[in-house]
Amino acid sequence: MAGTPLFPSSVSFRPRLMSPITRLLLFLQLITLIFTSNCRDYDPMLLREKTLFFSNKSAFKIALFADLHYGENAWTDWGPAQDVNSDRVMSTVLDQETPDFVVYLGDVITANNLPIPNASLYWDRAISPTKSRGIPWATVFGNHDDAQFEWPSEWFSATGIPEVQCPQENISISGEECTFRGTTRVELMKKEISSNRLSYSMNGPRELWPGVSNYVLQLSSSKDPDSPGVFLYFLDSGGGSYPEVISSAQAKWFQKQSQAINPDARIHEIIFWHIPSTAYKKIAPLPIFGIHKPCVGSINKERVASQEHEWGIMDILVHRPSVKLLIALKSQGAG
């Protein structure tokens, strides 16, 4: 894979307010990974995770979908219409680009708008275009995926008692009424993993909870499955039910894991998470300068909505030569 320096980029946009074509440009970034041979002795037992395989062709293509926000304003006409648009855009992208793998990079759903006991109904819909085409995928949590339900002010009647309005999807849940308990990260992940053989997502180490989507995947040649070509790391950047941070415990986990399975740092590593680090603020374009070409969305109009604190992960990544790419995507307009 052609080496590129670790350099965080910041993109902020309002996908729910734009046309399907614009959303296609904003939701999707395609990464083409060109692999070269990495010859070294490697113990496959060190990595007890699922392994992805690339064929004899020279490129392995990954499609990224971020801030889909299924279920947003679920009780209105506007919200479900946006979900239909997302269905269409993702289907178009997957058919035209034919990726080998898909990453759902956070805020798959808007849990704070879902008054149902099982938000995985919307989660399942979001991943269905990928699943129906037989494409494997992995997910990372964002700050809206398990956020606490927020009562819309328009629900309150003149007497001050909320008029409960369940979205249509709730009717399919036999014997259950609207509830505002919400669905936890662990529940969402367990449901996805248990019912989808193409899912490469994982409930990460228990000691890192409440952060859940912390795991690593190995990408190898189908001819030599025990020799890694690239390691893909996924980190839970928080939000929703807990602060928007990548904790020092997560940073130490990454450091320990990467040293165990890639001790000489010869295998390239790519990192995925949802909420940008505070470091992104330093390199984001200022309104007075801006980015002119190429530019889509509102990158020149909004400031970076970053994590609350920096607890060491960026310093580790910057000083690790095998880390070639960090991808963090969050729509400030969508929250």
The CATH class, by name, is Alpha Beta
Strand proportion:
15-25%
Strand order of the largest sheet: 2-6-7-8-9
Determine the N-to-C terminus distance: 34 Å
**What is Rg?**
20 Å
Biggest sheet character:
5 strands, mixed
Residue windows where pLDDT falls under 50 for at least 5 positions: 1-48, 170-175
Structural summary, described in words:
The protein has 7 helices and 9 strands, in the order αβββαβαβαββαβααβ. It has 335 residues and is α/β, with parallel strands linked by helices. A 5-stranded mixed sheet has the order 2-6-7-8-9, with no helix packed on it. Strands 1-3-4-5 form a 4-stranded mixed sheet, with helices on one face. α1 packs across α2 (78-97) and α2 (78-97) runs parallel beside α3 (120-132). InterPro entries: Calcineurin-like_PHP, Metallo-depent_PP-like. This is Probable inactive purple acid phosphatase 16 isoform X3. It comes from Elaeis guineensis var. tenera (Oil palm). Residues 60-278 form the Calcineurin-like phosphoesterase domain.
Task: Name its key features.
7 helices, Purple Acid Phosphatase, chain A, domain 2, single chain, 335 residues, alpha/beta, disordered N terminus, 23% helix
